[in-house]
Amino acid sequence: MQKQLNEYTNYLAVEKGLSKNTLESYRRDLNKFSSFLNEKEIASPEAVDSEVINLFLAELKYNNCAASTISRTIASIRSFFNFLMAEGFLDNNPALELESPKIEKKLPRVLTTDEIDCLLGQPRPGDQKGLRDKAMLELLYASGIRVSELIDLNLGDFDPRVGYLRCKGKGQKERIVPIGSVAINYVNEYMNNTRAKLCKNNGETALFVNQHGNRMTRQGFWKILKKYALKSKINGEITPHTIRHSFATHLLENGADLRSVQEMLGHSDIATTQVYTQITRKKIREVYDKTHPRA
Fold first, then answer.
1. Do the beta carbons of residue 245 and residue 110 sit within 8 Å?
2. Crossing angle of helices 2-11/20-39, nearest 10°?
3. What is the per-residue pLDDT for 269?
4. What element of type H or E holds 278?
5. Residue 57: its pLDDT value, please?
């Protein structure tokens, strides 16, 4: 079983080009499934039937796993058995008729422009780390890129002269994103005055580095954002994706077309981007209800 799991994850990495985070999600789900099979003394995929899979899913539900987690796990198991069928390891697919639970779609949280101004105003650009943090936050809001894309940026991906940023998204798909003048100025100042002082290794290619002079990590950025979120005293949790959601919503509120926002966010399907139109419609309704004399 483990050998086939390894072959499958190699297939996802090499042939499908999935991101590290997506691969880790698949591995995590399938390792849990593999552990369940071991407990049931089921040694190979050939011995797995739909009843066994449903028992595993029932256990997840019993342990109060969220519907989204169960749905993702079903997708992982289904994809794994599809791979085994395609490679000739199995004659029958036990995951063929699995049904995903219905997931209540919640609109993503979005900060107001005043809240964004408050959050981005927290770092002190007068010191080295403050300037780096300011540059990262401004760039994140100016571009709408994911946190994984932010920390993967290299020096050659940012050119202040042209005002564009090059980044690689899911599946290593490269895209070019325009950057506003405020972010350009802070990133440029960080590159010229701070990065070299933080970076102890001349061979380091990362645009943003941590206190040890190495590439900023995902966890490191989360800690930085959490610190400034607490200082801003904005109610509710603020994540890197909150800033991404705010970027998209603010563009649409100010007249950007959906296709352009889709391109900037790197969404392969415009349906993913359309969720932000629901947010803008909801806000318009709230404004109407508050301001119209006969609402």
1. yes
2. 160
3. 83
4. helix 275-291
5. 92
For residue 229, what are its two tokens?
């979120």
d(CA 162, CA 34): 50
DSSP β-bridge partners for residue 234: none
Q: What does the chain come to in residues?
A: 295
Q: Where are the beta strands (DSSP E) in 169-288?
A: 174-178
- Distance in Å from the first CA to the final CA of the chain: 62
Nearest partner of 109 among 277, 287, 241, judged by Cα: 241
CA distance 86 to 12: 14
Q: What amino acid positions are annotated as catalytic residues? A: 146, 170, 241, 244, 267, 276
Asked if 44 contacts 1 with a C-beta cutoff of 8 angstroms, the reply is yes
- The one-letter amino acid code at 273 reads T
Please tell me the distance from the alpha carbon of residue 264 to that of residue 244, in angstroms, as a whole number. 11
Determine the CATH number of domain 113-290. Answer: 1.10.443.10
Q: Is 13 exposed, middle or buried (0-12, 13-18, 19+ CB in 10 A)?
A: middle
pLDDT at 46: 87
| Yes or no: domain 2-86 corresponds to CATH 1.10.150.130 | yes
Per-residue confidence (pLDDT) for residue 283, from 0 to 100: 67
Condensed to tens digits (0 to 9), the pLDDT of residues 157-197 reads 988 888 899 998 877 788 999 999 999 999 999 999 999 99
Domain boundaries, the chain: 2-86, 113-290
280-283 contacts: CB < 8 A, separation 24 or more? 280/249, 280/252, 280/253, 282/107, 283/253
HSE of 177 in the Cβ direction (CA atoms, 13 Å)?
Answer: 34
Give the relative orientation of helices 240-253 and 258-265 as an angle to the nearest 10 degrees: 160
Identify which of 11, 53, 47, 13 has the alpha carbon closest to the alpha carbon of residue 29: 53
